[in-house]
Amino acid sequence: MKQLLSLVTFLVFFNGLSAQLFSKERVANSVDNIDQKLLSWGYFLGFNSYDFKFDYNEDLEDILVDNSFGFHLGLVGDLRINDYINLRLEPGVFFTTRNLRYDESYFDGLDFNDADLLREVKSTYVHVPLLLKFSTKRINNFKPFIVGGFSAALNLSSNQDNPDDNSSGQFRMTKSTYFYELGFGIDFYLLYFKFTPSIRGIFALNDEIVRDADPNSPWTGNVASMQTRGVFINFTFQ
């Protein structure tokens, strides 16, 4: 699925880009007036890679995070402020998995097995960012931009209300997370739509770990804070 999506995206991107760069005449676009609309709509899909940033109470071995690429999709609402600034709302659903690997030193003096050293953290986020997009002047059929703002996410897989904790094999996170986001991309004006590849970094503002009942828990006792950070690769169609 990922390979097919990447191939389709590449073909669309290459077709539009070659028309812009290798043709003497500017491509006639039916979307020439899209940037003049007060409101415009679209959708996005892409890949994500989530990580955790840990701060610790004591200087023990780091908790290692094995992250993998996840998938996301959502909608775009765009409000034109002027020729160079847009306000954007981009609600979406994001799927990701992270594995936490604990060093044996966390279990010093305790009985443990291999399963205790690994915690799988599956997350399904309903992610809602409010962003400001700052664009350059349009050059032929493309326009670079930077984007930034704040977002809130609801983790549907958080286990926050689960009465069981890590002693029963349940790793828990808070339901709500708040982020700031920064990114950049390029708008490409193709024949019938505007195609926008972009990359964005997200950084959590709040501590997300739900601590175990035991204050000396090997899984949460040494964690002062745990905050999500990640990278999004988006492909937007308007």
Task: Describe, in plain words, how this protein is organized in 3D.
The chain is 9% helix and 51% strand. Strand 8 and strand 9 (194-204) form a beta hairpin. It has one helix at 2-22; strands at 39-56, 64-67, 69-80, 85-89, 92-101, 118-135, 142-155, 176-189, 194-204, 223-237. The protein is mostly beta strands. The two termini are 23 Å apart. Mean pLDDT is 88; it is low at 1-14 and 18-25. The protein has one helix and ten strands. It has a single domain (28-237), classed as Beta Barrel (Porin). It comes from Winogradskyella pelagia.
Order of helices and strands: HEEEEEEEEEE
User: Unreliable stretches, pLDDT < 50, 5 or more residues?
Assistant: 1-14, 18-25
The CATH architecture assignment turns out to be: Beta Barrel
Count all strands and give the number: 10
Q: Please, what is the average pLDDT?
A: 88
Query: Which word captures the global form?
Result: elongated
Topology (SSEs and partners):
Elements: H1 2-22, E1 39-56, E2 64-67, E3 69-80, E4 85-89, E5 92-101, E6 118-135, E7 142-155, E8 176-189, E9 194-204, E10 223-237
Antiparallel strand pairs: 1-3, 1-10, 2-5, 3-4, 3-5, 4-6, 5-6, 6-7, 7-8, 8-9, 9-10
